[in-house]
Design a protein that fits this description.
single chain, 260 residues, mainly beta, rod-shaped
Length: 260
Amino acid sequence: MKRVFGFLLSTFCFKYASAQRSQLSHSIRIEKGFANTSDLGYEEEMSRSFQGLGYRYKTKGDWYFGTEAQYHHNKLNSSRLLPLQLQEQGTLYACRIPGSENEMGYFFVPESMQSSVNIITNNNVYKSQQDQLPFQTQSLRATRLNFMLHGGKSWEVGRGVIEAGVTITGTFYSRDIVVSSRQQQAISCRSLATGEFYNTMFDVTTFKIVDEKTTWIGAGVHARYQYPVMKNLRVGLQLLSSASVEGLLLQAAPYMAFGF
């Protein structure tokens, strides 16, 4: 009799717990995603982590749909980002651009020219070094926002829940890039042979940082497993893949979900 009573009690508790789980139609998910991507052609950008926030609604038939936003930003520290490496032979000079208070330009004086000409230096023209550019590559930044729409079906397995479905992803990516322009500018010189002062035209290169923005759409599949630790709190893991014309996004994201 005790065994029968124990069996009935355990069955009732299991069904009650299942009913409680089924009643949690809404959930908000906080996650930390770790991803590897081939949709960006920059090696330092391929492995990244995301902070994510998601919402899910489950129907009575155990179908669900939801949204998710993931965000990431980081610093770009690579000399490869410079469009001009300033590796010409000669001495590098900096000069102010006429008509601009703060804009600086850079030009080289070839070694062959230095034996016969002396560049007149002052507050507007002076010798420079390649590490004295008017910006720091360490300050260049990149940001990425993934906005996702999920849909699928869930199954209760023991005390846990398995979910699987499809995902549509919209990616909004921006990064700082360095662009250059070149113009000719008259620089004052002095002939070492005659002492004569005159102006010589040099190719002066200027730089500026531009925010480059791109967007693309991808689609893929996802799977989740979540386990209840409290009545309204679950922990889980989401695995996701999304393909687009830009490449492939693969991600594993541990998360906490709050149901209501």
